[in-house]
Amino acid sequence: MNYLSDEEFITLFQLYGNPASMSNDTGLSIRGIQARRNSLEGRYGIHLLTIQIKDRVDPAPQRLDLGILNGTVLVFSDAHFFPGLRSTAYDGLIWAIKEFDDLKAVVANGDVFDGAGGISRHPRIGWSKAPSVIEELKACELAMGEIEDEAKNVNKSIKLIWPMGNHDARFETFLAANAPHYEHVKGFSLKDHFPAWQPCWSVWMNEQTVVKHRWKGGNFAVYNNTLHAGTNFVTGHLHSMKVIPHTNFNGTTYGVDTGTLADPLGPQFRDYTEEAPLNWRSGFAVLTFHKGRLLYPELVSVYDKDHIEFRGKVIKV
To answer: What is the pLDDT of residues 228-244, one digit of tens each?
Structure first.
């Protein structure tokens, strides 16, 4: 234990939170850790609080159930927030939060964080410069914080939900592969940085409508989602923004792709799409429920750099 300075020991203890966790990863004895902790507390007049993992890290629920019967839910996806950029669709989302007086929830349906800055599974393309992890994280905190503030200004009971996307998962996947000893350390999970947003894999508006980042793949994914699930199925991931109904003897369900909140021609995508034509659209979805039934899903789409279109109107944002 002598190889650790007092400052290093205090920092490590605060990271691990308790002697057992610190012992497991450092090889130091629990008795020795406790003895030095007591010595430092007395010497510096500090208190090194013991924190159990269960008190500090809340595991993300696999599924959330909202039980919505009536009201509106806004669902956006694939924001890929980028430092210094503010998309038209994002401005439209801020407009929509203030527009609907029956708003029940805002769902960030995955890929809020991009993860291009050195933690992507894809290699760097040429000499392209991607933002660092901290730069991306700060951009996400700024944007999600504004959404949070606007929602709470409208109604403090509006729920903020964040189903995990495959890009979001890069944050923890890289750490798990390269710094496994820091498991359960606060800040090493993406959700630690966004405490107002409830993390999950899927969120059920009610028994008939589920929202998750992705499921089926390919050109017919949106149709296949609702066909095989037998429910209304709302996803992102493909950036294509569309609504496809499916009707059988049991009635009509809807497959919904909420598009991308980012600009499809933005720098987040420019290199790996190689300036190819993209079947992508920028916007988000408005889900309206009446007596538990999802009415025909509506889309808010970008008209030009200053306007969105919704319900047959062009709206400046």
So the answer is: 999 999 999 999 999 99
Question: Which pLDDT does position 58 carry in this prediction?
Answer: 46
pLDDT of 213 over the 90 cut: yes
Report the C-alpha gap between 10 and 171 in whole angstroms: 26
Residue whose C-alpha is closest to residue 79's, from 194, 174, 182, 184: 194
Q: Is the pLDDT confidence value at 142 over 70? A: yes
Q: Is 147 helix (H, G, I), strand (E, B) or coil?
A: helix
Per the prediction, the chain carries an average pLDDT of 87
**Mean pLDDT throughout 286-299?**
97
DSSP letter string over 175-223? Answer: HHHH-GGGTT-TTSSGGGG-TTSEEESEEEEETTEEEES--S-STTHHH
Q: CATH number of 63-316: 3.60.21.10, 3.30.428.10, 3.65.10.10, 3.40.50.11320?
A: 3.60.21.10
Parallel, antiparallel, or unpaired for β 159-163 and 103-108?
parallel
Q: What is the crossing angle of helices 19-26 and 30-44, to 10°?
A: 120
